[in-house]
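Researcher: I'd like a structural prediction for the single chain below. Treat it as a standalone chain; there are no partners to consider.
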Amino acid sequence: MSLRKKGLSGVKLLLAVFFIVAVLLPLIYMLTTMAGEDVGGLVTSEGFATALGHSVWVSLTSTLISVGLAVVLAWFIERSAIRCKGLFTILFTLPMLIPSISHGMGLVVLFGSNGVLTNLLHIDGNIYGFWGIVIGSVMYSFPVAFLMVSDMMRYEDSTPYEAASVLGISKVNQFSAITLPYMRKPMVSVIFAVFTLVITDYGVPLTVGGQFTTLPVMMYQDVVGLLNFGKGSVIGLILLVPAFIAFLIDLLDKNKASLSYVIKPFRILKNKIRDGIAYLSCSIVSLCILLPIAAFAVLTFVKKYPIDMSLTLDNITKTMEIGADRYLANSLIIAACVSVIGVAIAYITAYMTARVPSKSSKMLHLVSIITLAIPGLVLGLSYMIFFNGSFIYGTLAILILVNIMHFFASPYLMMYNTFGKLNQNLEAVGATLGVSRGRIIRDVLIPQSKATIAEMFAYFFVNSMMTISAVSFLSTFTTQPLSLMITLFEAQMMLESTAFVSLLILGVNLALKGGINLYKRNLRKKELA
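Model: Treating it as a single chain, here is the predicted structure.
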Protein backbone atom coordinates (compact mmCIF):
# COMPACT_ATOMS: atom_id res chain seq x y z
CA MET A 1 0.00 0.00 0.00
CA SER A 2 1.41 3.41 -0.99
CA LEU A 3 2.15 6.09 1.60
CA ARG A 4 -0.67 8.24 0.19
CA LYS A 5 -3.24 5.44 0.53
CA LYS A 6 -2.05 4.70 4.06
CA GLY A 7 -2.57 8.35 4.92
CA LEU A 8 -6.14 8.33 3.57
CA SER A 9 -6.92 5.09 5.41
CA GLY A 10 -5.54 6.61 8.61
CA VAL A 11 -7.82 9.65 8.25
CA LYS A 12 -10.83 7.39 7.69
CA LEU A 13 -9.89 5.36 10.76
CA LEU A 14 -9.61 8.49 12.91
CA LEU A 15 -13.01 9.70 11.70
CA ALA A 16 -14.57 6.30 12.39
CA VAL A 17 -13.15 6.27 15.94
CA PHE A 18 -14.46 9.81 16.47
CA PHE A 19 -18.01 8.87 15.43
CA ILE A 20 -17.94 5.70 17.51
CA VAL A 21 -16.93 7.62 20.64
CA ALA A 22 -19.14 10.64 19.97
CA VAL A 23 -22.31 8.81 18.88
CA LEU A 24 -22.46 5.04 19.12
CA LEU A 25 -20.86 4.40 22.52
CA PRO A 26 -22.99 7.02 24.38
CA LEU A 27 -26.17 5.51 22.92
CA ILE A 28 -25.15 1.96 23.77
CA TYR A 29 -24.16 2.97 27.29
CA MET A 30 -27.46 4.82 27.76
CA LEU A 31 -29.40 1.70 26.83
CA THR A 32 -27.50 -0.31 29.47
CA THR A 33 -29.05 1.91 32.16
CA MET A 34 -32.40 0.33 31.29
CA ALA A 35 -31.26 -2.88 32.99
CA GLY A 36 -32.61 -1.82 36.38
CA GLU A 37 -35.98 -0.82 34.98
CA ASP A 38 -39.07 -2.97 34.65
CA VAL A 39 -39.41 -2.01 31.00
CA GLY A 40 -42.59 -4.01 30.45
CA GLY A 41 -44.25 -2.57 33.54
CA LEU A 42 -43.20 0.97 32.63
CA VAL A 43 -44.36 0.76 29.03
CA THR A 44 -47.77 -0.65 30.03
CA SER A 45 -48.27 1.80 32.92
CA GLU A 46 -51.18 4.20 32.63
CA GLY A 47 -49.06 7.36 32.72
CA PHE A 48 -46.67 6.14 30.04
CA ALA A 49 -49.44 4.82 27.79
CA THR A 50 -51.33 8.12 28.12
CA ALA A 51 -48.25 10.21 27.29
CA LEU A 52 -47.46 7.95 24.33
CA GLY A 53 -51.01 8.28 23.02
CA HIS A 54 -50.86 12.06 23.44
CA SER A 55 -47.53 12.24 21.59
CA VAL A 56 -48.72 10.14 18.67
CA TRP A 57 -52.05 11.95 18.34
CA VAL A 58 -50.46 15.42 18.53
CA SER A 59 -47.72 14.45 16.08
CA LEU A 60 -50.12 12.98 13.52
CA THR A 61 -52.39 16.03 13.65
CA SER A 62 -49.52 18.52 13.52
CA THR A 63 -47.83 16.64 10.66
CA LEU A 64 -51.03 16.58 8.61
CA ILE A 65 -51.52 20.33 9.04
CA SER A 66 -47.85 21.28 8.57
CA VAL A 67 -47.32 19.22 5.44
CA GLY A 68 -50.65 20.26 3.92
CA LEU A 69 -49.90 23.93 4.58
CA ALA A 70 -46.37 23.52 3.22
CA VAL A 71 -47.60 21.95 -0.03
CA VAL A 72 -50.12 24.74 -0.63
CA LEU A 73 -47.72 27.59 0.13
CA ALA A 74 -44.81 25.99 -1.73
CA TRP A 75 -47.08 25.66 -4.77
CA PHE A 76 -48.02 29.35 -4.48
CA ILE A 77 -44.35 30.36 -4.28
CA GLU A 78 -43.14 28.09 -7.11
CA ARG A 79 -46.16 28.03 -9.44
CA SER A 80 -47.74 31.49 -9.18
CA ALA A 81 -46.72 34.87 -10.60
CA ILE A 82 -46.80 36.78 -7.30
CA ARG A 83 -44.05 39.22 -6.41
CA CYS A 84 -41.99 39.32 -3.18
CA LYS A 85 -41.46 35.55 -3.22
CA GLY A 86 -38.10 35.99 -1.51
CA LEU A 87 -39.67 38.07 1.26
CA PHE A 88 -42.43 35.53 1.82
CA THR A 89 -39.87 32.71 1.96
CA ILE A 90 -37.87 34.60 4.60
CA LEU A 91 -41.02 35.20 6.66
CA PHE A 92 -42.09 31.55 6.38
CA THR A 93 -38.71 30.38 7.70
CA LEU A 94 -38.38 32.87 10.60
CA PRO A 95 -39.64 30.28 13.16
CA MET A 96 -36.53 28.20 12.40
CA LEU A 97 -34.38 30.90 14.02
CA ILE A 98 -35.82 30.71 17.54
CA PRO A 99 -36.24 27.76 19.96
CA SER A 100 -39.46 25.75 19.86
CA ILE A 101 -40.19 26.77 23.45
CA SER A 102 -40.38 30.38 22.24
CA HIS A 103 -43.28 29.45 19.97
CA GLY A 104 -45.11 28.06 22.97
CA MET A 105 -44.43 31.21 24.96
CA GLY A 106 -45.62 33.30 22.01
CA LEU A 107 -48.94 31.46 22.10
CA VAL A 108 -49.20 32.08 25.84
CA VAL A 109 -48.55 35.80 25.27
CA LEU A 110 -51.21 35.94 22.55
CA PHE A 111 -53.86 33.47 23.75
CA GLY A 112 -53.13 32.78 27.42
CA SER A 113 -55.49 33.79 30.21
CA ASN A 114 -54.19 37.37 29.98
CA GLY A 115 -53.07 37.12 26.36
CA VAL A 116 -53.00 40.09 24.02
CA LEU A 117 -55.59 38.67 21.62
CA THR A 118 -57.53 36.96 24.41
CA ASN A 119 -58.23 40.34 26.03
CA LEU A 120 -58.58 42.25 22.77
CA LEU A 121 -61.08 39.81 21.21
CA HIS A 122 -62.66 38.71 24.53
CA ILE A 123 -61.93 35.06 23.75
CA ASP A 124 -63.22 32.47 26.20
CA GLY A 125 -61.08 29.46 27.09
CA ASN A 126 -57.30 29.15 26.87
CA ILE A 127 -54.51 27.85 24.68
CA TYR A 128 -53.37 25.06 27.00
CA GLY A 129 -53.80 21.41 26.02
CA PHE A 130 -54.04 19.47 22.78
CA TRP A 131 -54.75 22.29 20.34
CA GLY A 132 -52.19 24.57 21.93
CA ILE A 133 -49.49 21.96 21.37
CA VAL A 134 -50.71 21.34 17.80
CA ILE A 135 -50.66 25.05 16.90
CA GLY A 136 -47.21 25.52 18.44
CA SER A 137 -45.88 22.38 16.76
CA VAL A 138 -47.18 23.52 13.37
CA MET A 139 -45.43 26.88 13.81
CA TYR A 140 -42.23 25.05 14.73
CA SER A 141 -42.30 22.34 12.03
CA PHE A 142 -43.99 24.08 9.09
CA PRO A 143 -40.83 25.92 7.90
CA VAL A 144 -38.93 22.64 7.57
CA ALA A 145 -41.73 21.07 5.54
CA PHE A 146 -42.06 24.21 3.41
CA LEU A 147 -38.37 24.29 2.49
CA MET A 148 -38.33 20.58 1.61
CA VAL A 149 -41.48 20.75 -0.55
CA SER A 150 -40.45 24.04 -2.15
CA ASP A 151 -37.08 22.59 -3.12
CA MET A 152 -38.86 19.54 -4.56
CA MET A 153 -41.16 21.68 -6.72
CA ARG A 154 -38.36 24.02 -7.82
CA TYR A 155 -36.52 21.17 -9.55
CA GLU A 156 -39.52 19.57 -11.22
CA ASP A 157 -39.30 19.41 -15.02
CA SER A 158 -42.13 21.10 -16.92
CA THR A 159 -41.65 19.07 -20.12
CA PRO A 160 -44.07 16.22 -19.21
CA TYR A 161 -46.79 18.75 -18.40
CA GLU A 162 -46.32 20.56 -21.71
CA ALA A 163 -46.52 17.27 -23.57
CA ALA A 164 -49.65 16.28 -21.65
CA SER A 165 -51.30 19.62 -22.48
CA VAL A 166 -50.53 19.19 -26.18
CA LEU A 167 -52.16 15.74 -26.02
CA GLY A 168 -55.24 17.25 -24.41
CA ILE A 169 -54.86 15.53 -21.03
CA SER A 170 -56.84 17.32 -18.35
CA LYS A 171 -55.21 19.03 -15.33
CA VAL A 172 -56.75 16.44 -13.00
CA ASN A 173 -55.25 13.55 -14.97
CA GLN A 174 -51.91 15.40 -15.16
CA PHE A 175 -51.91 15.69 -11.39
CA SER A 176 -52.63 11.98 -10.88
CA ALA A 177 -50.31 10.71 -13.62
CA ILE A 178 -47.35 13.13 -13.35
CA THR A 179 -47.37 15.12 -10.10
CA LEU A 180 -48.27 12.35 -7.66
CA PRO A 181 -45.66 9.85 -8.91
CA TYR A 182 -43.01 12.60 -8.87
CA MET A 183 -43.83 13.71 -5.33
CA ARG A 184 -44.66 10.34 -3.74
CA LYS A 185 -41.20 9.25 -2.54
CA PRO A 186 -39.94 12.72 -1.52
CA MET A 187 -43.20 13.40 0.36
CA VAL A 188 -42.70 10.25 2.43
CA SER A 189 -39.41 11.73 3.64
CA VAL A 190 -41.08 15.07 4.36
CA ILE A 191 -43.87 13.45 6.37
CA PHE A 192 -41.51 11.35 8.47
CA ALA A 193 -39.15 14.29 9.00
CA VAL A 194 -41.96 16.51 10.30
CA PHE A 195 -43.49 13.73 12.40
CA THR A 196 -40.11 13.03 14.00
CA LEU A 197 -39.53 16.73 14.65
CA VAL A 198 -42.86 17.06 16.45
CA ILE A 199 -42.89 13.83 18.44
CA THR A 200 -39.40 14.45 19.87
CA ASP A 201 -39.96 18.13 20.80
CA TYR A 202 -40.56 19.07 24.41
CA GLY A 203 -40.37 22.89 24.14
CA VAL A 204 -43.91 23.51 22.90
CA PRO A 205 -45.64 20.87 25.12
CA LEU A 206 -43.71 22.15 28.15
CA THR A 207 -45.14 25.66 27.75
CA VAL A 208 -48.68 25.10 26.47
CA GLY A 209 -49.32 21.44 27.28
CA GLY A 210 -50.84 21.99 30.71
CA GLN A 211 -52.03 18.59 31.94
CA PHE A 212 -51.68 17.14 28.42
CA THR A 213 -48.33 15.37 28.96
CA THR A 214 -46.24 14.04 26.07
CA LEU A 215 -43.33 11.60 26.12
CA PRO A 216 -40.53 14.21 25.72
CA VAL A 217 -41.96 16.24 28.62
CA MET A 218 -42.18 13.08 30.75
CA MET A 219 -38.58 12.26 29.86
CA TYR A 220 -37.42 15.77 30.74
CA GLN A 221 -39.24 15.75 34.07
CA ASP A 222 -38.03 12.26 35.02
CA VAL A 223 -34.38 12.98 34.21
CA VAL A 224 -34.01 16.61 35.33
CA GLY A 225 -36.54 16.57 38.16
CA LEU A 226 -36.28 13.00 39.50
CA LEU A 227 -32.83 11.94 38.15
CA ASN A 228 -34.43 8.71 36.94
CA PHE A 229 -31.98 7.84 34.16
CA GLY A 230 -33.34 4.34 33.62
CA LYS A 231 -36.85 5.56 32.89
CA GLY A 232 -35.45 8.37 30.77
CA SER A 233 -33.49 5.81 28.74
CA VAL A 234 -36.63 3.75 28.10
CA ILE A 235 -38.49 6.83 26.88
CA GLY A 236 -35.44 7.80 24.81
CA LEU A 237 -35.47 4.40 23.14
CA ILE A 238 -39.17 4.82 22.27
CA LEU A 239 -38.45 8.27 20.79
CA LEU A 240 -35.69 6.75 18.66
CA VAL A 241 -38.18 4.49 16.85
CA PRO A 242 -39.94 7.05 14.59
CA ALA A 243 -36.65 8.88 14.05
CA PHE A 244 -34.93 5.66 13.00
CA ILE A 245 -37.80 4.78 10.63
CA ALA A 246 -37.47 8.27 9.11
CA PHE A 247 -33.74 7.68 8.72
CA LEU A 248 -34.29 4.35 6.92
CA ILE A 249 -36.95 5.87 4.66
CA ASP A 250 -34.59 8.72 3.76
CA LEU A 251 -31.71 6.31 3.21
CA LEU A 252 -33.63 3.83 1.06
CA ASP A 253 -36.07 6.04 -0.85
CA LYS A 254 -34.06 9.15 -1.56
CA ASN A 255 -33.65 9.69 -5.27
CA LYS A 256 -29.88 9.58 -5.70
CA ALA A 257 -29.98 10.21 -9.40
CA SER A 258 -27.79 13.09 -10.52
CA LEU A 259 -29.56 16.32 -11.37
CA SER A 260 -26.99 17.14 -14.03
CA TYR A 261 -29.56 16.81 -16.81
CA VAL A 262 -31.30 19.96 -18.03
CA ILE A 263 -34.54 20.77 -16.25
CA LYS A 264 -36.93 23.01 -18.11
CA PRO A 265 -38.52 25.48 -15.66
CA PHE A 266 -42.24 26.13 -15.65
CA ARG A 267 -43.44 29.05 -17.72
CA ILE A 268 -45.69 30.88 -15.28
CA LEU A 269 -48.37 33.14 -16.74
CA LYS A 270 -50.32 35.69 -14.77
CA ASN A 271 -53.67 34.55 -13.39
CA LYS A 272 -55.57 37.10 -11.31
CA ILE A 273 -57.65 34.59 -9.34
CA ARG A 274 -54.76 32.22 -8.59
CA ASP A 275 -52.34 35.03 -7.78
CA GLY A 276 -54.91 36.81 -5.64
CA ILE A 277 -55.48 33.67 -3.58
CA ALA A 278 -51.70 33.22 -3.34
CA TYR A 279 -51.17 36.77 -2.07
CA LEU A 280 -53.96 36.38 0.48
CA SER A 281 -52.78 32.99 1.74
CA CYS A 282 -49.11 34.00 1.98
CA SER A 283 -50.03 37.24 3.74
CA ILE A 284 -52.22 35.49 6.31
CA VAL A 285 -49.56 32.90 7.14
CA SER A 286 -46.88 35.61 7.34
CA LEU A 287 -49.08 37.57 9.76
CA CYS A 288 -49.58 34.49 11.93
CA ILE A 289 -45.82 33.97 12.04
CA LEU A 290 -45.08 37.62 12.83
CA LEU A 291 -47.71 37.93 15.60
CA PRO A 292 -45.73 36.06 18.30
CA ILE A 293 -42.58 37.99 17.36
CA ALA A 294 -44.52 41.27 17.58
CA ALA A 295 -45.91 40.16 20.95
CA PHE A 296 -42.35 39.46 22.16
CA ALA A 297 -41.33 42.95 21.03
CA VAL A 298 -44.23 44.52 22.93
CA LEU A 299 -43.61 42.51 26.10
CA THR A 300 -39.92 43.34 26.10
CA PHE A 301 -40.62 47.04 26.48
CA VAL A 302 -43.62 47.16 28.88
CA LYS A 303 -43.32 47.21 32.66
CA LYS A 304 -45.70 44.37 33.51
CA TYR A 305 -48.21 42.89 31.12
CA PRO A 306 -51.18 43.37 31.38
CA ILE A 307 -51.06 45.41 34.61
CA ASP A 308 -48.76 48.23 33.51
CA MET A 309 -48.31 48.81 29.78
CA SER A 310 -46.04 51.83 30.08
CA LEU A 311 -42.79 51.63 28.12
CA THR A 312 -39.53 50.77 29.89
CA LEU A 313 -36.08 49.30 29.41
CA ASP A 314 -36.12 47.70 32.87
CA ASN A 315 -36.82 44.22 31.48
CA ILE A 316 -33.64 44.33 29.41
CA THR A 317 -31.62 45.63 32.35
CA LYS A 318 -33.05 43.02 34.72
CA THR A 319 -32.42 40.17 32.27
CA MET A 320 -28.85 41.32 31.74
CA GLU A 321 -28.27 41.52 35.49
CA ILE A 322 -29.49 37.94 35.89
CA GLY A 323 -26.74 36.88 33.50
CA ALA A 324 -28.04 37.15 29.94
CA ASP A 325 -24.84 38.82 28.76
CA ARG A 326 -22.72 35.99 30.18
CA TYR A 327 -25.00 33.30 28.75
CA LEU A 328 -25.08 35.09 25.39
CA ALA A 329 -21.29 34.98 25.39
CA ASN A 330 -21.47 31.23 26.12
CA SER A 331 -23.87 30.74 23.22
CA LEU A 332 -21.70 32.74 20.82
CA ILE A 333 -18.58 30.78 21.85
CA ILE A 334 -20.42 27.46 21.52
CA ALA A 335 -21.99 28.38 18.16
CA ALA A 336 -18.71 29.70 16.73
CA CYS A 337 -16.71 26.65 17.85
CA VAL A 338 -19.41 24.24 16.64
CA SER A 339 -19.50 26.00 13.27
CA VAL A 340 -15.73 26.08 12.70
CA ILE A 341 -14.98 22.58 14.02
CA GLY A 342 -18.18 21.09 12.59
CA VAL A 343 -17.51 22.49 9.11
CA ALA A 344 -13.94 21.17 9.19
CA ILE A 345 -14.98 17.65 10.26
CA ALA A 346 -17.94 17.57 7.87
CA TYR A 347 -15.76 18.78 4.98
CA ILE A 348 -13.05 16.18 5.59
CA THR A 349 -15.60 13.41 6.09
CA ALA A 350 -17.51 14.34 2.93
CA TYR A 351 -14.24 14.40 0.97
CA MET A 352 -13.34 10.93 2.19
CA THR A 353 -16.75 9.45 1.40
CA ALA A 354 -17.43 11.27 -1.90
CA ARG A 355 -13.93 11.59 -3.43
CA VAL A 356 -12.16 8.51 -2.07
CA PRO A 357 -14.58 5.66 -2.93
CA SER A 358 -14.20 2.32 -1.14
CA LYS A 359 -16.15 -0.04 1.11
CA SER A 360 -14.85 1.82 4.16
CA SER A 361 -16.14 5.08 2.63
CA LYS A 362 -19.64 3.63 2.39
CA MET A 363 -19.52 2.59 6.06
CA LEU A 364 -18.21 6.02 7.06
CA HIS A 365 -21.03 7.65 5.07
CA LEU A 366 -23.61 5.55 6.91
CA VAL A 367 -22.15 6.41 10.31
CA SER A 368 -22.01 10.10 9.34
CA ILE A 369 -25.71 10.36 8.59
CA ILE A 370 -26.91 8.21 11.49
CA THR A 371 -27.31 11.31 13.67
CA LEU A 372 -30.36 12.11 11.53
CA ALA A 373 -32.08 9.37 13.52
CA ILE A 374 -31.15 10.65 16.99
CA PRO A 375 -33.37 13.30 18.65
CA GLY A 376 -31.45 15.97 20.54
CA LEU A 377 -33.11 15.05 23.83
CA VAL A 378 -31.92 11.44 23.49
CA LEU A 379 -28.41 12.44 22.43
CA GLY A 380 -28.13 14.84 25.38
CA LEU A 381 -29.22 12.15 27.85
CA SER A 382 -26.76 9.63 26.41
CA TYR A 383 -23.94 12.18 26.76
CA MET A 384 -24.89 12.95 30.35
CA ILE A 385 -24.73 9.25 31.29
CA PHE A 386 -21.67 8.32 29.21
CA PHE A 387 -19.40 11.32 29.86
CA ASN A 388 -20.33 11.83 33.52
CA GLY A 389 -17.10 12.17 35.51
CA SER A 390 -14.92 12.72 32.43
CA PHE A 391 -12.66 15.75 31.98
CA ILE A 392 -15.06 17.40 29.51
CA TYR A 393 -18.21 16.94 31.63
CA GLY A 394 -19.52 20.27 32.92
CA THR A 395 -17.45 22.29 30.45
CA LEU A 396 -18.22 24.12 27.23
CA ALA A 397 -16.38 21.34 25.39
CA ILE A 398 -19.17 18.79 25.93
CA LEU A 399 -21.79 21.31 24.76
CA ILE A 400 -19.73 21.95 21.63
CA LEU A 401 -19.32 18.23 20.99
CA VAL A 402 -23.01 17.36 21.46
CA ASN A 403 -24.08 20.19 19.16
CA ILE A 404 -21.60 19.13 16.47
CA MET A 405 -23.02 15.62 16.49
CA HIS A 406 -26.65 16.74 16.84
CA PHE A 407 -26.47 18.91 13.71
CA PHE A 408 -23.72 17.10 11.80
CA ALA A 409 -25.70 15.12 9.23
CA SER A 410 -27.29 17.97 7.26
CA PRO A 411 -24.10 20.03 6.68
CA TYR A 412 -22.24 16.83 5.88
CA LEU A 413 -24.83 15.93 3.22
CA MET A 414 -24.62 19.46 1.78
CA MET A 415 -20.90 19.02 1.14
CA TYR A 416 -21.26 15.37 0.11
CA ASN A 417 -23.72 16.38 -2.62
CA THR A 418 -21.52 19.31 -3.68
CA PHE A 419 -18.47 17.04 -4.04
CA GLY A 420 -20.59 14.70 -6.15
CA LYS A 421 -21.22 17.51 -8.65
CA LEU A 422 -17.56 18.53 -9.02
CA ASN A 423 -15.30 16.89 -11.61
CA GLN A 424 -14.43 13.42 -10.33
CA ASN A 425 -11.17 13.25 -12.33
CA LEU A 426 -9.36 16.11 -10.59
CA GLU A 427 -7.40 13.86 -8.23
CA ALA A 428 -6.42 11.45 -11.04
CA VAL A 429 -5.18 14.33 -13.18
CA GLY A 430 -3.38 15.79 -10.17
CA ALA A 431 -1.63 12.48 -9.47
CA THR A 432 -0.46 12.32 -13.10
CA LEU A 433 0.98 15.85 -12.87
CA GLY A 434 2.46 15.29 -9.42
CA VAL A 435 -0.02 17.60 -7.67
CA SER A 436 -0.98 16.44 -4.17
CA ARG A 437 -4.55 16.01 -2.93
CA GLY A 438 -3.89 18.74 -0.37
CA ARG A 439 -3.14 21.30 -3.09
CA ILE A 440 -6.19 20.22 -5.11
CA ILE A 441 -8.38 20.65 -2.04
CA ARG A 442 -6.82 24.04 -1.20
CA ASP A 443 -6.61 25.52 -4.70
CA VAL A 444 -9.57 23.92 -6.50
CA LEU A 445 -12.18 22.24 -4.31
CA ILE A 446 -12.43 24.80 -1.49
CA PRO A 447 -12.76 27.80 -3.89
CA GLN A 448 -15.46 25.96 -5.84
CA SER A 449 -17.42 25.04 -2.68
CA LYS A 450 -17.25 28.34 -0.77
CA ALA A 451 -21.03 28.86 -1.01
CA THR A 452 -21.71 25.40 0.44
CA ILE A 453 -19.18 25.98 3.22
CA ALA A 454 -20.96 29.23 4.09
CA GLU A 455 -24.32 27.40 4.25
CA MET A 456 -22.78 24.71 6.46
CA PHE A 457 -21.40 27.35 8.81
CA ALA A 458 -24.80 29.08 9.01
CA TYR A 459 -26.61 25.81 9.70
CA PHE A 460 -24.31 24.88 12.56
CA PHE A 461 -24.34 28.39 14.04
CA VAL A 462 -28.08 29.09 13.90
CA ASN A 463 -29.07 25.71 15.33
CA SER A 464 -26.44 25.88 18.08
CA MET A 465 -27.75 29.31 19.13
CA MET A 466 -31.36 28.15 19.49
CA THR A 467 -31.14 24.51 20.57
CA ILE A 468 -32.49 23.50 23.97
CA SER A 469 -32.98 19.74 23.74
CA ALA A 470 -29.38 18.60 23.19
CA VAL A 471 -27.88 20.82 25.91
CA SER A 472 -30.62 20.77 28.56
CA PHE A 473 -29.06 17.84 30.46
CA LEU A 474 -25.42 18.95 30.09
CA SER A 475 -25.12 22.62 30.98
CA THR A 476 -24.09 24.01 34.36
CA PHE A 477 -24.54 27.45 35.93
CA THR A 478 -21.31 28.66 34.33
CA THR A 479 -21.67 26.98 30.92
CA GLN A 480 -25.40 27.52 30.34
CA PRO A 481 -26.26 28.84 26.86
CA LEU A 482 -28.69 31.72 26.41
CA SER A 483 -31.50 29.53 25.03
CA LEU A 484 -31.89 27.70 28.37
CA MET A 485 -32.81 31.00 30.06
CA ILE A 486 -36.13 30.70 28.25
CA THR A 487 -36.86 27.50 30.18
CA LEU A 488 -35.86 29.20 33.43
CA PHE A 489 -38.01 32.28 32.83
CA GLU A 490 -40.93 30.17 31.60
CA ALA A 491 -40.96 28.25 34.89
CA GLN A 492 -41.03 31.55 36.81
CA MET A 493 -43.60 33.14 34.44
CA MET A 494 -41.21 36.01 33.69
CA LEU A 495 -42.75 36.60 30.28
CA GLU A 496 -41.02 39.92 29.68
CA SER A 497 -37.55 38.40 30.16
CA THR A 498 -38.54 35.38 28.02
CA ALA A 499 -39.59 37.74 25.25
CA PHE A 500 -36.30 39.63 25.37
CA VAL A 501 -34.18 36.45 25.26
CA SER A 502 -36.21 35.12 22.30
CA LEU A 503 -35.72 38.39 20.41
CA LEU A 504 -32.02 38.36 21.25
CA ILE A 505 -31.56 34.88 19.77
CA LEU A 506 -33.63 35.83 16.73
CA GLY A 507 -31.58 39.00 16.23
CA VAL A 508 -28.23 37.16 16.37
CA ASN A 509 -29.44 34.48 13.96
CA LEU A 510 -30.91 37.04 11.55
CA ALA A 511 -27.63 38.97 11.56
CA LEU A 512 -25.67 35.79 10.84
CA LYS A 513 -28.03 34.66 8.07
CA GLY A 514 -27.95 38.16 6.55
CA GLY A 515 -24.16 38.15 6.56
CA ILE A 516 -24.00 34.70 4.96
CA ASN A 517 -26.51 35.69 2.25
CA LEU A 518 -24.48 38.85 1.52
CA TYR A 519 -21.31 36.76 1.27
CA LYS A 520 -22.97 34.31 -1.14
CA ARG A 521 -24.31 37.19 -3.25
CA ASN A 522 -20.80 38.63 -3.56
CA LEU A 523 -19.52 35.19 -4.56
CA ARG A 524 -22.11 34.99 -7.34
CA LYS A 525 -21.14 38.47 -8.57
CA LYS A 526 -17.47 37.46 -8.75
CA GLU A 527 -18.37 34.29 -10.65
CA LEU A 528 -20.37 36.30 -13.20
CA ALA A 529 -17.72 39.00 -13.52
